[in-house]
Design brief:
This protein is an alpha/beta fold. Helices cover 37% and strands 23% of the residues. Strands 9-8-5-10-11-14 form a 6-stranded mixed beta sheet, with helices on both faces. A 4-stranded antiparallel beta sheet has the order 1-2-3-16. It has a two-stranded antiparallel sheet with strand order 4-15.
């Protein structure tokens, strides 16, 4: 039950009795009064030498009944839960919809990502950088997909960054295989965007190898993504050429020989994205700082109406009237 304001004022600014059906209890005391048999009065003994109080008793009894009735009305109004709704407030939060697609092939265990004076595994570097990246994206919707032999949706698009970060921290290698299904990762991310009807569709794909598993090729998956207006940013991970100490002295090796940069560049070009190359931990951080500059979604909005509970007012009135009634009863009124 709502009480709207006069025309010309904001129509949605009003009072509402949330539990309006409680008003049906208002006539309950009268119903009980009518249905319960009256108490038989004993015959009064008339003493002519005592002063008559008939003229005073009736008004005072009537006052007590009126106070009791008002108390009951106030209690019912409080039980009906009166709420004041203010004018609706529309907020246009700037957020982006990003699906993070991360390679979990066994080659991600390679310790060639320089972090300060030591080297860490590729997966450890990804966890460190992506965790900070996720923490900084307050208000954005993020999702997480892992791929190895096949692709799996770990976390659907959500505003809860803590869940996404926790799922990333807990992941381990060999969990879903040792190979690299890049095409399936792109395909699953694209399907997730379509199912969620995301206003802006962006995939950040991170891998250190080439597609050697799955039922969908990466170029074909990129074309499907482009058809559904999905932009893909690809990130190639691995140190590449580096000097290591071997049995015969120092040797030059290429730790990123399996990285298919040509395909990753083509995926980015097809979808209007960009290809990045991360040789060490610092470059990986710079890449995600660049991705942070993606255009925000502007057509997302949230509307809410401030509300104030008013049940305390009739309760306070009922308490005050109860105190007055108790004082009158105490004085034999």
């Amino acid at each position: 039950m709502r009480f709207r304001q006069k025309e010309g004022e904001q129509k949605l600014t009003n009072f509402e009795l949330v539990w309006w059906w409680m008003l049906f209890l208002l006539p309950l005391p009268l119903i009980v009064y009518w249905l319960v048999p009256a108490v038989k009065k004993n015959t009064a003994i008339h003493l002519p030498y005592l002063p008559s109080q008939t003229t005073q008793t009736q008004p005072r009894n009537l006052l007590s009944k009126i106070l009791a009735g008002l108390i009951w009305v106030c209690l019912i109004l409080a039980a009906a839960r009166p709420v004041y709704f203010g004018a609706p407030i529309t907020v246009n939060p700037k957020h982006r919809d990003l699906m993070l697609v991360v390679d979990l092939s066994y080659s991600m265990s390679q310790k060639d990502m320089k972090d300060g004076n030591h080297y860490i595994s590729r997966l450890a570097a990804v966890k460190n950088v992506l965790s900070k990246f996720i923490e900084e994206r307050k208000g954005d919707r993020l999702g997480l997909i892992f791929f190895a032999n096949h692709a799996y949706l770990q976390t659907p698009l959500t505003f809860d960054r803590n869940i996404v970060a926790e799922q990333l921290r807990q992941v381990v290698l060999k969990l879903i295989g040792t190979q690299t299904a890049i095409g399936e990762g792109i395909g699953l991310a694209t399907k997730t965007f379509i199912d969620n009807d995301a206003p802006q569709r962006v995939i950040v794909l991170l891998t250190d190898g080439s597609n050697n598993s799955g039922v969908l090729g990466p170029i074909e998956a990129a074309k499907i993504a482009h058809k559904y207006h999905v932009k893909i940013y690809t990130v190639g991970v691995g140190a590449g050429e580096m000097t290591v100490n071997g049995f015969f002295g120092q040797q030059q090796i290429n730790t990123s020989a399996d990285l298919d940069e040509k395909t990753l560049k083509e995926i980015a070009n097809i979808t209007g994205g960009k290809y990045f190359r991360a040789h060490d931990n610092q470059q990986l951080k710079n890449i995600y700082n660049t991705i942070n500059k993606l255009e925000p979604v502007t057509n997302a909005s949230q509307t809410w109406r401030p509300q104030t509970e008013w049940f305390g007012l009739p309760l306070a009135v009922a308490l005050l009237l109860s105190a007055i009634l108790m004082i009158l009863r105490r004085n034999h009124v």
